[in-house]
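hey m, so remember when u said the tokens were messed up on ur end? i reran from scratch. heres the input so u can diff it against urs
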Amino acid sequence: MSSNFAYRYVSITPEHTTSTGARSYGTASAMTAHGSKIFGEVDDESVAHMFDLMTRADMSRYGAAKSLNGKEHSEGGVNMVIQADDFCGLLFYGAYGDNATADSAKYAVASNKHTMTEGLDHILPSFTLEVGREDKEHTYTGMCLSRISVSGTVGEYATMSADFMGKAESAVSPLTTPTFAGATLEGLHFAEGEVTFSSATGTAGVISTNIKSISMEISTNLNTDDACSIGSRTYVRQPEPQMREITGSIEFSRPEIGTALSGSNQTPQYELITAVGGKEYDGTIAGNPAISIKFTQSATAVLKIDIPKVRWEAPSMNVSGRDSTTMSLNFVALVDDNMAMSEVVFETLVTTAGRYSKV
């Protein structure tokens, strides 16, 4: 072949230096609990070294005469089909983090179920990304997750994307041969998916059969300006997350028109959402979340995302001469009474405790 496909790859490694999870920003870990490198079967990547130019002009010349590189950093992301493997698990870990306790209850593992929930004491991890591009391997350290999204469409694989920001590219090295974490696994898909709605605490969630597609995005809003310091062109400390934002969109195969919710129908309805004051779904993270999204490949390959409290935005409907009417609806997640915005239960074939935390 004209291209060296065997050496196109992306690997991710948490930047932990001890068995109790001590962090060292910008230094990759070789911990056996995580593996020295976790390779993912990504569709594409866009990680790149970036820098600003400081350009200087003076009054004696008709244009700029001098220039230097200013702040340098790396940014970009990966797109892929969701698989129940370590690579995808570490991406979710990048969005949820962990606390200073090695056996954090928020990361308790029941059999092969890894539960990740936001915590006020959680610290988001940093990673080293190594990208193979046919000729050389490019190393990007101190990479922190800035955005992660999940989506599913009828008749398609469930997909995800993750964006990172971090230190300037640190090395260009010889290629290695990848061993993919999910080489024996198939992707999760919407054919085995469920979307459940619950309008209020104590109201049992009901699975909707009216969903064409759904997407959800988590943004950590990293403060990259404060990661820099005089005396260095790149980040000297880990960028801190700012206000967390979770948004999403749902497309229904037909509009839900109604003015009242019943026990058997919890699907958001056009007239309720457009009424004065709008509509909020306030469920519980542990019982009946406002929205529960589930993608499955097998009994031991499951991704479940629960959002306890959401506010619905204005719905939109369209119709054409050949297509039936559909309804699209955006939502914004809110912090509930238990200080939670979402929870991920990632069920894999891996049974190591704390696989997606620092231990």
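this time it looks ok to me. The radius of gyration is 22 Å. if urs says something different then somethings off w ur setup not the seq
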